[in-house]
Amino acid sequence: MICALVCALGLNSMLQCVVRCTRAALAEPAGWVSHRRLNAGLKREDVVALPVATYAAAPQQAPAGCAICLSDFSDGEKIRVLPACGHRFHVVCVDTWLLSHCSCPTCRRRLSPLGAEAPLEMAIAP
């Protein structure tokens, strides 16, 4: 009985989400499409053009790590530094992320393809 109740609540939540998204797409199709394009990933050429550095651990400091895969950087490893915010990630990890998102995975600051970065507008609840 409890399992059926949980399934019914999950189905209800999913249907509400679909109805809400459909209403937004039908009410303001141009705004909805432009919002979706605005949050799309970068082109592969733009991702490859981002700077790459070789990691060298600073003495007597805790090792830094990639916020995507959660593993520490090792000496001599290639890392990509995002110019908008300076956050560092493994090249493979952040390239995969940036092909489907246009912002830093840590601070969500927008990366523009032309190099003119602007902060991502988003409401932060207290």
TrEMBL record:
GO terms for molecular function: transferase activity; zinc ion binding. Residues 66-108 form the RING-type domain. Residues 1-24 form the signal peptide. It is a single-pass membrane protein. One of its GO terms (cellular component) is membrane. Keywords: Membrane, Metal-binding, Signal, Transferase, Transmembrane, Transmembrane helix, Zinc, Zinc-finger. It holds the Pfam family zf-RING_2. PROSITE patterns: ZF_RING_2. Transmembrane segments: none annotated. GO terms for biological process: protein ubiquitination. It is found in: Membrane. Belongs to the RING-type zinc finger family. ATL subfamily. This is Zinc finger, C3HC4 type (RING finger). The lineage of its organism: Eukaryota, Viridiplantae, Streptophyta, Embryophyta, Tracheophyta.
